[in-house]
Amino acid sequence: MDTNVAAATPTHDVTIPVPVVSLGELWPWAMLAVMLVVQMYFVAAVPDGTVHEFLHDSRHLLGFPCH
Predict the structure, then answer these.
(1) The pTM is what?
(2) What is the DSSP string of the chain?
(3) C-alpha torsion sign, points 21, 25, 28, 31
(4) pLDDT tens by residue, 46-65
(5) Ranges of the chain with pLDDT below 70
(6) Which of 11, 24, 32, 63 is deepest in the core (most CB within 10 A)?
């Protein structure tokens, strides 16, 4: 049985790059996420369907196929 542990250890330093994201790059995506959550809330909260139809039509204007 070979118990040579030194052969299994790496001989060089291994560094994993960590992406640096500034707040300036993050805030548009955070605002988009907040707007989508708010839209989903209003679609579910308004019973008569007017908000649903407004948001549904906006999906068509953005070119998103939904049906």
Answers:
(1) 0.44
(2) -----GGGS-SS----------HHHHHHHHHHHHHHHHHHHHHHH-TTSHHHHHHHHHHHHTT----
(3) positive
(4) 778 777 777 777 777 777 77
(5) 1-10, 66-67
(6) 32
